[in-house]
Amino acid sequence: MKLGMPDHDFGKMENHLEVIAKSYDRSVDLGRKGIDIYTNLPEYITNDPDYSTFQKCRAEGDDSSSGRKDIRDYLSPATDMKFIDLGCCLNLMFNGYDNWPSLYHGVDISNETINLLHEFIAKKNLHIGSLFCGSVHKTPFEDSSFDIGACIGVFEYFKRSFVEKVLIEAYRIMKPCGQFVLDAPNNENSMRRFMNLIEEYMGRPVRFDISPHEFEDILQNYFDIDKKDELNDVAMIQYFLRRKK
């Protein structure tokens, strides 16, 4: 299914998704070997004037917007809820999602990420809903499946056309009025340039081409915005949303 995309555009998108997947596969492989991918960065990054801000952010543990207490406080996970984590990365391992009482479902394009999560789940004897290796714009779930959800650290890699497909999919699988948290790059923030350098060095080309105002216009076709937080140290805006009825 090509979702209305011309053949050449669909092919480019498939290639780009593969590039992103391979980059995260490599990160997991290095992590298994005890190698921190953020050490031994090239001089053009470590000599950058914004590098010190980036270092401070990592030292304080603020480099992962997935682990913010605000997310749990807003979503208020409970035992009778199903939670979908789109672009889940290793949130279940490192950001406390394994302690949430809601039933966890994760989607990620990196096969190595999904494999590592399966190992973690088996080791911790966790009960979850499911893990799916694939793109977040096309998931296997039925309409209105989830009470709460998140999509953190995904949109920076994609242009407007794909971003909207992800939002349509999130709208489809969330229940009416279901609460959802996502973030998007703030291209008007000066730190964004540096964060893009990091991502591209990691082999993850940044494609996001939408201003905050334009992004919010798109968002409001599918979700009501309860609040938003500007995370200036990582040049992202985090949105706290309710799925429209």
Looking at this protein, list some descriptive labels.
245 residues, alpha/beta, Rossmann fold, 9 helices, disordered N terminus
Summarize the structure.
By secondary structure, the protein is an alpha/beta fold. Helix content is 40%, strand content 20%.
How is the topology of this model organized?
Blueprint: H1 7-32, H2 43-46, H3 51-59, H4 69-75, E1 82-86, H5 91-94, E2 103-108, H6 111-124, E3 130-133, E4 146-151, H7 160-173, E5 174-185, H8 191-201, H9 212-219, E6 223-231, E7 236-243
Parallel strand pairs: 1-2, 1-4, 2-3, 4-5
Antiparallel strand pairs: 5-7, 6-7
Question: Mind explaining what this structure looks like?
Answer:
With 245 residues, the chain is an alpha/beta fold. The chain has one domain (7-243): Rossmann fold, CATH 3.40.50. It has helices spanning 7-32, 43-46, 51-59, 69-75, 91-94, 111-124, 160-173, 191-201, 212-219, and strands spanning 82-86, 103-108, 130-133, 146-151, 174-185, 223-231, 236-243. It has a 7-stranded mixed sheet with strand order 3-2-1-4-5-7-6. It is globular. The model is unreliable at 1-8 (pLDDT under 50).
